[in-house]
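Tokens in:
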């Protein structure tokens, strides 16, 4: 496996993505962008990139905060994330810049790109679909679902999969219903998988804070990853070899 760090710039902020791919194949291949949680581009998403690279994809863990910027805990994580929640056009521009950076890489088949995201990153990839970015599909893992306010009336062409915990306090039922209506009105091909007795951050083995609503769920973690693999198979038709 080959691992590289890729610098790119948005609004004078230097960002650092993490690229992983199987070095035995030098040809461009389907690629998955990975948007990070409110913590930043830490080991959690880099590990997901390595798992996807092991299945034959190129995987690019994007950076939204800035090179080397990682939150130290909930207070700092919230401070880092909030400007993007307050300025969704800026968030969307930064996501498009990450897509542009990935598309320029030799190993990337820029006609076959998907994007996945976790928590805050789930919101980010949904916004990528909302602005009509050139991606085949997006997948949100326990993502925030609130609408951005600047994409009403835009068609959504990217296939969309939302993987959601029923008991997630950060994305209540009203938000699930709202996104169903939003994506239907936009003509999207959308799916929502809802896991019962499951809270926010269900894919993170270190999540164990019921009071905050962030609790790991091994069953939902496995089921959601299987759903991702099936989604990518359908999305790209010709699948890289899985390991």
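Residues out:
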């Amino acid at each position: 496996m080959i691992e590289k760090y890729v610098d790119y710039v948005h609004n004078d902020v230097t960002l650092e993505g993490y690229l992983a791919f199987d070095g035995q194949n030098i040809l461009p291949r389907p690629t998955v962008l990975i948007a990070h949680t409110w913590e930043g581009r830490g080991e959690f998403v880099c590990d997901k990139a390595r798992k996807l690279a092991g299945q034959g994809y190129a995987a690019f863990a994007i950076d939204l905060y800035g090179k080397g910027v990682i939150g130290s805990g909930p207070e700092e994580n919230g401070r880092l994330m909030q400007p993007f929640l307050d300025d969704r056009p800026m968030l969307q521009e930064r996501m498009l810049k990450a897509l542009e950076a990935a598309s320029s890489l030799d190993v990337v088949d820029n006609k076959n790109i998907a994007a996945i995201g976790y928590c805050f990153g789930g919101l980010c990839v949904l916004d990528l679909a909302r602005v009509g970015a050139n991606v085949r599909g997006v997948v949100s893992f326990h993502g925030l679902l609130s609408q951005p306010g600047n994409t009403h009336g835009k068609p959504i062409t990217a296939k969309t999969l939302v993987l959601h915990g029923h008991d997630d306090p950060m994305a209540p039922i009203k938000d699930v219903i709202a996104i169903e209506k939003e994506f239907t009105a936009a003509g999207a091909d959308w799916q929502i998988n809802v896991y019962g007795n499951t809270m926010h951050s269900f894919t993170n083995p270190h999540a164990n804070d019921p009071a905050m609503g962030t609790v790991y769920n091994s069953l939902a973690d496995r089921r959601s990853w299987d759903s991702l693999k099936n989604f990518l198979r359908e999305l790209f038709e010709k699948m890289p070899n899985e390991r």
